[in-house]
Protein 1
Amino acid sequence: MYTRLLSVLLLVFVISACQQNQPGVHSPDLSYFQPSDSGLQTGGVRMIPIQTPKGNFKVWTKRFGNNPQLKVLLLNGGPGATHEYFECFENFLPAASFEFIYYDQLGCGNSDNPNDTSFWDLNRYVSEVEQVRTALGLNKDNFVLLGHSWGGILAMEYALAHQENLKGLVISNMMSSCPDYGKYAQDELAKQMDPKVLDTIRQLEANKDFGNPKYMELLMPNFYTKHILRLPLDEWPEPVNRSFGKMNQSLYVTMQGPSEFGIAGKLVNWDRKADLPKITVPTLTIGGAHDTMDPEHMKWMATQVKSGTYLHCANGSHMSFYDDQATYFNGLLDFLKKL
């Protein structure tokens, strides 16, 4: 009996040793899962105090992994969505030992919501990101900022104000000019829609009847599943639905405007095309062939910054990290590894 047990244990040991020597089979990097702070553990969650001209608030962050050399802070889009639609990053970045940090901007998700539209301001959000960076101890030796959609606008603005703190920058699915974005939506995306459907949408927008259920009923199959996330609505990932279900409409409308065809809010005249050469840190721009944003513009952006790379997601739309996932994450991880 004991001889048989010994034989089994020996066989297990041999198999385990062989697996460790096989290409592609790795032992987990235990240091990646070590706490970065002593004391009470909260799963990496920290509420960061934010100072504003109208008082102090707190924003929610959550660290995933532990890598002193590279930490990616995620800026969600909307404006007004939450960190939750980024949850697919958990299937890719930890395997490469890259730390990343979820972050709900003020007014979003788990963060405080002052319910005051004066807070929905681009410069104030830049100040907020800088306060979050300081609190988390991010610096030029480890700090990578990834902004998606509206988060890409915020990332560009942050880089232009504080790039001395950055190791790298990722601008995902966002153009450097809102007027150009609006023109692309009108001249290219609108023309791809059924003329009868477009006429009805135009009438609803002209009447400012954005709350009419018909508006979203038409946009969902004719715009969202073609240019936001190219999957049937019943197959949209749960983290996306959860995030979009918590959208801060006050923040969204104030900054973006109520229409899906271009920008009509505070960002209507935002344009940083001429300032892109001022960005000197390594920068990755990402665009999708079916994006709400012009992929040619995002490709051009990579030629304007000092050290730019463009990643094209041929099957992707605005959320290419879902509908062209392999291309998106292979390109992103390659960029991060080179840093």
Protein 2
Amino acid sequence: MIIGVPKEIKNNENRVALTPAGVAEFKKNGHTVYIQTLAGVGSGFTDEAYEKAGATILPTIEAVYEIAEMIVKVKEPIASEYKLIKENQLLFTYFHFASSEELTHAMIERKAICLAYETVEKADRSLPLLVPMSEVAGRMAIQEGAKYLEKPMGGRGILLGGVAGVKPANVLVLGGGIVGTQAAKMAAGLGANVTIMDISLPRLRYLEDVMPANVDTVMSNEYNVREAIKLADLIIGAVLIPGAKAPHLITRDMLKEMKPGTVLVDVAVDQGGCIETCTPTTHENPTFVIDEIVHYCVANMPGAVPYTSTLALTNATLPYAIQLANKGWEKACKENEELKKGLNVVNGKIVYKGVSEAWKLPYCHISEVLA
């Protein structure tokens, strides 16, 4: 199969979908790999390193899309890429369709095969291609939150861990999944008082066992959320429903119950966000203020640490990408239930229920396209 890796063009997205080691694996399996020039430079990988591994460097993004049977990316295509996508071309990347109606309609129109990292799902319901970036984003959420709590950045002027004789900050984490767990661990490690909320009692029991003493677990419901936000200095939104929009746990009216200078970090913003007032921002302009509350809503947080993120992501995606290349997407998805669940849009049809429900569009059962 012919594999194409374009340079990411989303604002300040420095990750790349394939490392030179990944190129070598594709070559070992008999595939051809084309890399757009400078695609890996933001992550520390030169064109020469890719060529040495066996890739061919192409000068433009247009050339990569034109020649490739499978496009491997990190982030969803943006508007300028839509016209480059060909019918029956396989795109393997993060899509987050439930947060963009425009992207959904564009991929339906292009009749591409859209296999989304974020909905590839194991039998135990874990999301293997979301986990590495969730780990990075959860840890980064605390780094960024701590920074924006500083007074010059618009925050309350609070040090997360406090000092002798001065209480530490209160951190509220909404969601006890991968993102929330990593965020709570980081905040606790810095000495903050942490409260983590979830709707699953078994998950809360697990977190109670593994978290340090400065982390409290609380059942998530509207009453408890409203009470907790009054005390919080930093609030992390870490709620995910695979392939669907995140629910709004914090609504606009709740902002008035928070202390001025409180910082909100919505890690779920690329799935619509779990904080009603959050809209996607970029690393260039990461924050905005509503009702004296600082909102940090960067949709590609791991893009700020591309070396770590690229290696973590490609470690997870490469085995699946090799299967797709070796067998073709149809056979690979028939034989691998995990990959089958990654299919979101196929030849103009939505085959993932969460996407069809998000935009009230017709749903086609996956069995109809994998006959």
